[in-house]
What does this fold into?
Amino acid sequence: MQRPIYLDCHATTPVDERVLEAMLPYFRESFGNAASVGHFYGWEAEAAVKLAREAIANAINATPDEIIFTSGATEANNLALKGIAEAYHQKGRHIITVQTEHSAVLDPCTYLQSLGFEITYLPVKTDGLIDLQKLKDAIRTDTILVSVMVANNEIGVIQPIAEIGQICHDRQVLFHSDAAQAIGKIPIDVNAMQVDLMSLTAHKIYGAKGIGALYVRRRRPRVNLAPQLHGGGHERGMRSGTLYTPQIVGFAKALELSVASQAEEQQKALDLREHLWQRLSELDRIILNGHPTQRLVGNLNVSFMGVNGAALMLALQPVVAVSSGSACTSAKTAPSHVLTCLGHSKELAYASIRFGIGRFNTFDEIETVANHVIASVRSIR
It folds into this structure.
């Protein structure tokens, strides 16, 4: 059976062989528990975790003690939002986020609303970027947190994080950013960006699923965080649970590889994306979703007018693996909330495809996909 070409790298990525090679010893030979401080096997695992923590911290210009390992970005987002809400509720009960955030931010916000917190959901402009003036206007004396993702998981737009961080710090409001889609793909510096909490994950950068981290600032300001998992006091009491050493080692290796090859890899992805867009532009009545340049280079989100979305996805499945929205909300039948926030009708949102170009894609694959998409759209129309 011929497997479809994979162009869904915003959903997940395959584990790089070099990452797998780094992980394998910690499944069998060096299998100790990093919390077992009384013998060699524990010391061995503890040393591996320490090195990985240092590598991840260095990649975002943080310190190792500011990295809290989690099961992924979803848990990191929940820990950030709920942990801040619980720790700072006496200061205020107002949180600001954006309508186009990932469900791992929006759903915790809905939960916090049920507890009496007030959430302001900022709109986005037609290019997917927020209006900084609206953010300034939304901040109140009881605002305790602003949460804005670095790069959108559907349309790839990159928000002006450093400017947002400056606005928040000028008003002494904590700033959280979900960087799941951005880590390893664009330069990340938590100090230059003035971010206080940042959610990370490994499986978008050719690491394994099930491992992520939350950066929590410890200096200027020192961020307090209420733990959401109790039972052992791991991760300085912020996240209990046995550390998954193979995944942690793999996360560090994946990030190391992504940062080292960032310039070359991102240029290749940009070239492939521009070629795909150029080919798809042979069709009329198509719309590029999101800012044309201020976006992840591997992202192309296109709406096809006059096309039934379900029919298009069905036609593409034998040749290419793509998404019509977020993989994390694919069980829902509702259209993409991101695209409707841009002003698209439900019908047009359904008839939209997210192409996620990655490390292992080739020019020939892009050509094959372009030919098949063009033929499929013309056939359906």
The chain has two domains: 5-14+262-380, 17-259. The mean pLDDT is 96.
